[in-house]
Amino acid sequence: MKAVIKKIVKYNPFIYAVYYYLCSFLLKILGYFVRTHSDTILFMSFGGRSFSDSPKEIYNYLESRGPNDLQMIWAFERPEEVESVDDSHKVKVDTLKFFLVALRAKVWVTNSSIERGLKFKKRNTIYFNTWHGTPLKKMGLDIKNNQSFSSRADFNRIDKFTVQSDYECDIFSRAFGIDSSKIFKVGLPRNDDLTHQVQRREDLRRKFGFTDSDQIILYTPTFREFEHNSLHQITSNSYMLMIELVKKLPANYKILSRSHYEVDVIKHGDEISDRIIDVSRYPDLNELMHVSDMLVSDYSSVIFDYSITEKPIFIFSFDFEDYQKMRGMYFNIEDNLLSSRTTDGLSQNILNSQESAIQHVKKFKKQYVNFFGTATKQSCQYILKAMQD
């Protein structure tokens, strides 16, 4: 029910306006009575859904190598389910305690947003945003008639915004209204780990129970916000598409299927397969990239991250024309990586064109991923210096 209410607030202009102006005003007033603590950092990943991604990498680095007196707090939707963080360092999002922590924290670290669709950041708060992917599909102000993205977005209040390529700089400056001086060209902290391939892969293959002969496909489709049910829940038919694909591949091929975090309902149809493993809630995407032999995706930003591994990437653009019309893309991904719009074509690419796919990936990586390997260290150096200023 809570999720449904959030969707209604987000997509109903009148209800959202009341929420935005009233709550922002109240939090602004409250902020005058809450002192900023120079040693406190608030972390949030994917709106509080998980302990993951670049914020987790920054947190782990600071915990092991940062000053001992740092107060690092994580915000979660379900803090009781996160065992990796001590109870005293967790807070539940959208509670009074959450907003009080946000108001007193010197630094915010997130890969999406912290202000919950509101405007209450204090002038002396450092807002460090790692974002969660390189854009292929059009975003923010680049989407025509985008009613869910307007001046209410908090991106113009960000102090530093990490990117992993020159390609991203113009897009984020324009689409999110971020001043180019705030763009931090260091890469994404979460991707530093992808430069350490061999040992990680072997350890994780054993952890998952895969044999040397198993061929593991990681499938990471993006979400389609225009596909939703009457409750405004975003739906996906990704599982049914993989059922079609796995039938066309030898028995040693297995699929790790990971839906986008915005997807609420995955349609399964009448068939199931023990060769398709749902890893949508698996906490560490990097581990899935390490353990897999290849990636199948559509218009997801994962393709940029995965290119760092230089393993095969296959594009499954089954709804290319519709998606281009409904959402739009910055370039034609079918011109850059091996692509197919049918499961027949996709299976043939997987079985017969892996070496060709690798050559396409290397060229793609050279063009779209320029910075990686030391993002975590450089991000932490910036944060610690900003806390001292």
Automatic annotation (TrEMBL):
Membrane topology field: Peripheral membrane protein
GO biological process, one term: teichoic acid biosynthetic process
GO MF annotation: an example: CDP-glycerol glycerophosphotransferase activity
Transmembrane intervals: 12-34
Main subcellular location: membrane
Localization per Swiss-Prot or TrEMBL: Cell membrane
Coiled coil: none
Gene Ontology cellular-component terms listed: plasma membrane
Domain of life: Bacteria
Pfam families to which the protein is assigned, alphabetical: Glyphos_transf
PANTHER family named among the record's database cross-references: TEICHOIC ACID GLYCEROL-PHOSPHATE PRIMASE, TEICHOIC ACID GLYCEROL-PHOSPHATE TRANSFERASE
Family: Belongs to the CDP-glycerol glycerophosphotransferase family.
UniProt protein name: CDP-glycerol poly(Glycerophosphate) glycerophosphotransferase
